[in-house]
Amino acid sequence: MIEILQYPFFLKALLTALMTSILCGLIGSYIVSRRIVFIGGGITHTSFGGIGLGYYLGVNPVITAAVFGVLSAIGIKAASDKADIREDSAIGIFWALGMALGIIFIYLTPGYAPDLMTYLFGNILMVSMTDIYIITGLGTVASAVFYFLFNEIHSIAFDEEFAKTQGIRVNLINYTLISLVALTIVFNIKVVGIILVMSLLTIPQTAASVITKNFRTMIFLSIIIAVISSFAGLVISYYFNIPSGASIIFSSVVIFVVIKLFYNLSGKK
Amino acid sequence: MEDLITLENIDAGYNGVKIIENISLSVKENDFLGIIGPNGGGKSTLIKVILGLIKPYKGTLKIKKGSKFGYLPQFTSADRKFPISVQETVKSGLLTNKKLFRSFSKKDLDNAEFLMKKLDIFDMRNEPVGELSGGQMQRAFLCRAMVSNPDILVLDEPNSFVDKGTSSDIYKILLELNSKMAILMVSHDTGVISSYVKNIACVNKTLHYHPGSDITSQILDKYSCPVELITHGPLPHRVLRTHQNGGKK
Predict the structure, then answer these.
(1) A66-101 per-position pLDDT tens digit
(2) Is residue B23 classed as helix, strand or coil in its secondary structure?
(3) Can you give the pTM of this predicted structure?
(4) pLDDT tens digit string along A223-240?
(5) Are the Cβ atoms of A212 and B82 closer than 8 angstroms?
(6) Does B144 touch chain A (CB under 8 A)?
(7) Among A235, A240, A251, which residue's Cα sits nearest to residue A7?
(8) Is B70 helix (H, G, I), strand (E, B) or coil?
(9) Nearest-CB residue to A162 (from B68, B73, B131)
(10) Cβ(B199)–Cβ(B153) below 8 Å
(11) Which of B92, B99, B143, B151 to mutate to test the interface with A (most CBs of A within 10 A)?
(12) Contact: B85, A214; criterion CB under 8 Å
């Protein structure tokens, strides 16, 4: 156990896991409480189009994925608010379009797409220092937004129509938050991959919501559960030589099941 | 007295379907307007136009500058599993008094506590609001509507889910508040309407304004306003019949 802490790559992975857990614990609590997990799924898969475009243009796929992610988030919201398309249908369309564009761009790119698997399944060891700075910066921005606007965000998330009658800038806050959700998803794709990224934003939060019905406590508990499962996942990944994304998610599901069983068996709600 | 709310020739509805038509109405300060009418007649649509929740297709809506709204929705669309306590729900009604990035004032928080005690939900202030009974939840939402001391208090059926005893307590509070604010109240309970409100508007696609609170079936006849029959309850009340000529499609 001690000897793996001597490797710089492992320490970097731990730092990534910590920053990711803070960011995902916070943003995921918002996603789970507002029941917009499916929007998250839509954003994740639409951003695959951006990854494909990045390969095609020869730029860092994370940058183009971020653009696709934010545009899809705003697009899904606008399609349901303004264009009168039902939200789940809009999500389905963006989801499929993103995947289709991703495949088209990768197919058009000459040669083999290196580390495509990293984006699909994630590899925490491929995360660069730049990625860590971006995740930390985004975590700082998200924490500041939640710290200063907590009451407004909480009120809108609970009852948007009432919030509108109170002169709160509902649209501005909604679009800001959905953009933060999109960026959180995109910058965590390298860590756990497109297929698994939503789990970091839902499993620790759902586990936390078994224990508490208080939104603030839920955010802190989600972060703690996310940290424990990602550290445990990293250790498992090292000793069993399996991909870290999968072992992190597996650990979080185990924690969720244990908490749920404990609460159900002890008769607490 | 100055008009708080003025509507002129308003048409509004959902998805292009007109639900209310050619509505003109003005509400003055300290008015207590009862809004009655049949189900599907457009009472809630009218309220949502006034609150700015739906844009009218045509006509003009004027609200006195700087007016604050308090609002009790009919059925709250809110998620019962959402992590929010009774206290936090009530405080969300104070956001209209608060500037962005600031915290709530002491005066506002004191008022929140005072109202929660008055409406008998203070003891459960830390419980999740979704786990309350229907009547308790209604009182929590009523608290949320009143807590900012709004200029215009809009209540969409405040007496649903609430038993009659609590209901008369609530009306006593409303009468006190009425000296400070205008109240618009949708209600099916015509007994309550005639004992508390100052003026009546009947909405059935179009609007008929009746100054004064005395509703009789003759008046309703004249305004071609079909109202649902009220059949039980300990408060003395009238039973009004549905109009033959009023139910025009």
Answers:
(1) 999 999 999 998 998 888 889 999 999 999 999 999
(2) strand
(3) 0.88
(4) 999 999 999 999 999 999
(5) no
(6) yes
(7) A235
(8) strand
(9) B73
(10) no
(11) B92
(12) yes
